[in-house]
Amino acid sequence: MEPVRIVCWGFSGAGALSIEQVSDDLAAQNTGQPGCPPVELIHLDHSDDLPDNVDAVWIQGVLDPDEGRRLLAAAGEIPVFSSPPVTQDIQVATSFGMMTAMDSPGMPPAMETMRAKKSVAGMPPSGMRPKTRNQTGIPSSSMPGKTAGPSSTPGQSPPPAMKTMSAAQMGSKGNTVARMPVPARIAVALMLMTPLRIIHAARLTALHIGATDIDPGPLPDDVPHGLVDTGIEQPDRPLGTVGVIAMPLHEAIGDGGYIRDMARVLAGKNLAAVVWLGSPADMPDDVKDGIDVWLNLTGFTMLGHHGAPMYEQGTDFLTQTNTPVITPVPLQRGTLADWRDDDPGPVGLWPAAVSMNIAVPELEGATTPWVYGGRDAHTGAMCLDGESAERIADRIRRTITLKNTPKHQRKVSLTIFGWDGDGTIGTAAQMDVFASLHRILSRLKSDGYTVEVPATVEELTDMIVGSGGGGRRSEASVLARWRAADYARALDTRQRARIDSSWGLLPGAVDTTGGDMIIRGARFGNVVVGCQPQFGDVDDPAELLYNEDATPSHSFAAYYLWLEEVFGHDVMVHVGTHGALEFMPGRQTGLATNDWPVYLCGSVPHIYLYVMANPGEGTIAKRRAAAQTVTYLTPPLDDAGLYGDLEELAGLLHEQLRQSSPFSPQQPNGTQSTNHRPTPDIVAAAKRANFTDEQIADTRVLHRELEKIRRTPVAMGLHVIGEPMSREQTRRSLELAATYADDPTCQQATDALRELEEKLQSNTELESFLNALDGRYTPPVAGGDPARQPDALPTGRNIHAIDPVSIPTATAIRRGKATADKLLAAYRDSHNGSYPSSVAVVLWGIDNIKTSGEGLAQAFALIGATPVRGPRGRVDDFTVIPLEELGRPRVDVVATLSGVCRDVLPHPVELLDKAVRHIATLDEPAELNPIAHHAKATADQLDIAAVDAATRIFSAGRGSYGTGVNRLVQACDWETDDDLAEMYLTRMGHAWGTRQGADVHGILRSVLTTVDATFQNIDSAETSIAGIDHYFEFLGGVTTAVTRARGGSAPSSLVSQSWQAETNVDTLESAMALESRTRILNPKWIDAQLVHGYAGVAAVRTRLENTFGMQATTKTVGNWVFDRAADVLLFDDNRRSVMERANPAAVSSMTNRLLEAAERNLWQTTGDTIDRLEDIADRLDGALEGIEPTDIM
Hints:
The protein is α/β, with parallel strands linked by helices. The protein has 49 helices and 39 strands. The strands form eleven sheets. Strands 36-35-34-33-30-37-38-39 form an eight-stranded mixed β-sheet, sandwiched between helices. β5 and β6 form a beta hairpin. The longest helix is centred in the C-terminal third of the chain and has 22 residues, at 1093-1114. This is Cobaltochelatase subunit CobN. InterPro entries: CobN/Mg_chltase.
């Protein structure tokens, strides 16, 4: 008989092994079915071309849209079958299981002609096989004169059976599957590719194309389920029991050796392993109840299957059992050899693996996404990575040990952040760390831990921030001195060589006496509060930042090794957002034991108290430092209000409005004045309040500006862990939440707001923290702001981001386009109606996660493209908007990414990259397509390929984070703007998207010369633009670099307050003015911070520091801001004395920063002002060094 030739396109992993096992039998007709023709299975990679004389094509899993289009074009009339999921406009006609191409405006013309050749009803075109064969694929005996089964159109929804049943369930319901049309049965058979199912799919394919009339019958039920006898001798008296969830397919095809190997590793740690295939919900209760930790080896959610995760049910299951789950990563389609290769600087996992193996399992609370194994490069079999498997088993052992250890014996390390010179020891985003530590210590003591609790928060602060520098609270206290020789013995020799290469020979130059390593912090019984050292040398960061192979310093490594080797902690806790451990060099995802975060964390259970509003960086802590996060609340919001000159101006405007009323006695005949010109008193008051002439000219504008200031929500104070909001404190958050409502009924809105109020007024953070300390499960939660994402409440849960393939959402696309339109309108208003040729946009992970991709959608809108969501909810492709529909020129986009965005959202970043590169190839007028025009110019200038010249996605190098600009500014380690620009260009000159970290410094320098505007979203009212240094680091950094590239001409700098319900765009100058008036100059905001003592003063210092940083990089901060800052913060003797008593180092830092601003000509002020500041600085310097007496003691 004539053989049926089937191409297995892109099969890998278990599917490839199954094909290998049955290929010979199919070719020799040894399949137990007489009359079935021989089948030749041809295994090809995605990059291979289809051979001639092929009868059908099978594909596996998710396709890249371009690959799918190429395959369909090459296949022509050959039927193509796939198991879901497939991508974008390449869909399964799910009633039949055949792939077809849908309409796509972005599809190249060549593909349009190929589409016509494809069958759209699951029917192969005539002429493909001899017409004597039955082309319907239905046995002749069952044909009553017409084709059986429903017809199909592209994009049709899956039939109910396919929606609700897993492949394994389908195997047990053969009659149901047998009633499906043949192509759908092929798709089902390909979902779990056991050898028998591969044979079944081959028989069905032969039936469908008319090569046989014999129906093979129901789907074989050969998928194993239930307990597995590993043959491993279990420990007699195990420390605990591990529930190992494994893939049934691997066991079915004989590829489960690694499962037994893992059970053997666990047994070596004195742990019993219960290996289960399939859903653990089916496990008998007496077995399930004895599980201490779940180890999920499937690389997916515990419940559900690939393509159909059941993370909500998984969360419910884990919550009921209160048992933690560790879900390490299998390299199903990659080899261990490739992953281990760390030259030149590993990326880790590819985007699809990040989504499937990390992001989706996180939705059910999974932790510890270390790689545990992968394919052998020679045999293709799954095998363990020995070192990683040992580390994972150790983490499980120590989690169970923690659970079983009596509380009074447990040793707990609490790590805080910050450094001495700036008065920022123990600072964290929106948290009063010392008050929180006091609450934690008190609660630990009452819960049975052996803890010595200081009487007050002030006493606790003094114990940690001591007088080692000479004066009160001048330096972090010394907790211990560890002999450098002992540290050297504890340090891995390979890691030691790496540190020595970066920082000099052990013991280094930071926190060492030469013979000893200095560990800072304080001990409170069985609890240590330690101060995380600096990444490197804070006084000279340039060497570290320019070195992409940098390592942590010896002092940093010594701190974490001391906690393990000397203190012997049973659990490690990081207190507040965020430290530097998770940003240490190494793979970005899928870390190995020699990557710095894994090496320094070790196997000890790791808990991280993380602010609820930062899912981006929280996700990095989970993925790179294997943290189990416990979220804490943001501070309450309140209106900024008006004060001083602003309040006076508001009164004058109100009086003018009253006098212009028709009811005013000053208005004759009941008329109303329409004069909007300000009175002289108003003009004088407005000038004192530092409004611009343009604003002063119209009282309506002044009214709007004052109302904007008054109603701006600002975070009042800092959060103390475990402290709920009062009913009054919830008011502004509830008002803000109401603005996000999408046309609810009155009852719906009332119920939602009442629920939000209840969540804000209840707080179980400490209870959740104690549960985590018991080695228990912390349920997951999507991160976000309380008002905008009420589902992020209650706090005390394990923060996660989103599945990157799901964004941008439809709402994000709509809002992104609206913001892009306003950005262009704002630019045109100040540039005589002309459009920007190019905009440098800053994309962060945090705002794109919280807005479901608005920032990415803005970039798509600017270039004139739209992301497209495929049939299974994946945003896998884009359409190009024709110029006539766009109605304007396209705008070139230079996307500069944070490391978090690069790591957490690789899929949409790659899609944006593909869209830009495609548009760069379009034949459109240069004035309407600057992307193509600039790419051609860059290609000519640098003598590179056009496709490379279209690179527009830039970030730091592999495993590296940040632009370095903030570090230079904070260390005063720069002389001119060129130094800042050069640091930015050096750090950010790496391509991402499709190029995965390639060195493209020359391209970055070239494209920045074309930039007319810089832009960034401000994601949070709680944090705002001067709340963290990253805004001036990224937006300020790129603005500085563009200014240099343009020969000193600064671009327009624009921002959007993306947390607001209405889309908006404003100039950076206006945003900084609003920021300063509502916070750093606002007595209401300042005094709310000062309630928190040392931490509150540090928060004030941080705002001033970041305001200085924005001025250093963008020159957009008004001179009056620094004038008033000096008056309000330092020349107000009462306020300054309060701050000096609480945190003299922070006050000294503020004073010196203002002096630096004047010295660098960033602030023009008087000699008298300089003299006063120098007097304060000299006095504080002496007090901090303990040289002279002072009234602040």
